Amino acid sequence: MPVAEMGSEMSSNLQTTPTPLFALVDVNNFYVSCERVFQPKLEEVPMVVLSNNDGCAVARSAEVKALGVKMGTPWFQMKDLAKQHGIQAYSSNYTLYGDMSSRVVEVLRAFTPNLEVYSIDESFLQIETALKQYQDTIELGQKIKQEVKDTTGLPVCVGIGASKTLAKLANHLAKKHKQFVGVCDVNGMAKEELYQWMSETEVGEVWGVGKQIAKKLKAQNIQSVFDLLQASPQAMRQQFGVVMERLCYELRGTSCLQLEEVAPAKQQIIASRSFGKLVTSQVELAESVATHVARAAEKLRTQNSTAGALTVFIQTNPFKQNEPQHHQSVTIPLADPTDNTLTLTNAALAGLKQIYQANFRYKKAGVILNLISDKPTAQQSLFEDIETKGKSAHLMKAVDEINMRFGNAFIRSAAAGTNGTKEEWQMRSNNRSPNYTTKWDELPVAR
DNA sequence: TCTGGGGTCCTAGGACCC
DNA sequence: TCTGGGGTCCTAGGACCC
Fold first, then answer.
1. Which of A165, A199, A398, A416 could cross-link to A226 by cystine, CB 3.0-4.6 Å?
2. Cβ of A270 < 7 Å from strand B?
């Protein structure tokens, strides 16, 4: 589609709903910047922050990025480079980073309560209201940047756009190109300029386009963000699924992803670690598994939750290609949801016994607590749908089809939800057992 | 020859994010 | 020799249910 037509299509899409405006505030080189707040002498020193066991770089200063060091590069692989350029390495201090993160959020909340803490170093703000007190988006953005710097000592960039994806893109531009001075608004920008930036930016930079998808896109000559903007969302959905379709609309300025002000309840808690050296004995694995359970259970209690099941897993080192590999996990359902460390430990150790195999050299062990959620099952939500909205179109279609094939004798399965009260439906559902002998003809008759 | 079909649950795996 | 840890969502296939 020619560029000129696309603009008109975008505006017609937007007529129905008022356009939100998002700002993404992201701390530059977060862990590195945190260390520098407390050790100002590190300013402008090329440095990295290392993962657990000091394995690989999880944060790089601008100087190190300029040397071409990628995120996640193992420390041993960059030692030569480090020597050559005087790269300093620091072990990570997550307690400190967590604390700094809260302080940043506090500052941002003063601008607007419409805020989503997206990660330890990033927040989305919805800024339509806050904007009224400023001349324009750039002034607001600069004010945010200054305020965070003054209060916490941390440098941030601000990206502004009509969707979260565009705000992310804007933030990327603000970080990459000095002329934005840390604040970029792709919404206020002239279309021609935006499209220019988009065609200069690789498609892989788009939020939600990772390595694999970028590769497939490039194979069909979708190289830049602009190329993706021109692709048909329907075609993208065909190939990559619904997430990708949403992403395309977001790029075109139709916001599909809402601000999530209240963090949804966690579905799982993971505690895992790599070993410093490879482990072969079940006893050693059991010790580490017990430690992980204790940590996970602690997190569980902190958030006042209980686990309905527990998963244990152990893995060999995937980087050792010439060694036999063993990755296995087992999930243990817990009859009564619990937050009790001893109960969870017993379950975990029983699980470990099931999956452990001698003669493998294990690199990593961990546990996952599967939390009890109040999210309704698909069937429950279907029922609620019927209760609130009346019989939905797709359900009626299914009913019609059944009636067409089998006559009006009965309606089964999901359609059975149309019969009786919620309680009756739940009873039927609870009564299911291997011995359940009800014949078709005994099932409830429709209407 | 044709042989019911839709739903749930579970698991595994792939993709993505920071 | 040495390669993080914690999350999410989606999909597909098989077992099982009625």
1. A199
2. no
